[in-house]
Amino acid sequence: MSLTVSTEQRGDVVVVAVGGELDMATAPQLQNQISDLLDKGRSRLVFDLSELSFCDSTGLSVFVRAKNSCDEAGGQVRIAAPQRGVLRILEVSGLVEVLQTYPTVAEAIAPEPATD
Known about the structure:
5 helices; 5 strands; five-stranded mixed beta sheet; 116 residues; globular; single chain; alpha/beta
């Protein structure tokens, strides 16, 4: 299976929908898309993983690099709607907290509640 990547601008957030399998063979495709977004000044990214059926350690490293790059640019990365298998990989790797994971795209896009 191959990888599909599409983007949609929603306010100041870019939703990056990732589908198929993210592994050593397909990770460069996603990395190139992220680099293009960062080059255009887009540093608030939500990765919609609802259609991602598989993700290996190479794929995880793409998300970590995206987070680091977005953090440096004053933005953020959030993960939305991972399927059970992908969520399990995020949990086992300890990245579910680092990569701010949300059950839906809407929740991932929502602004953080104000704290006093």
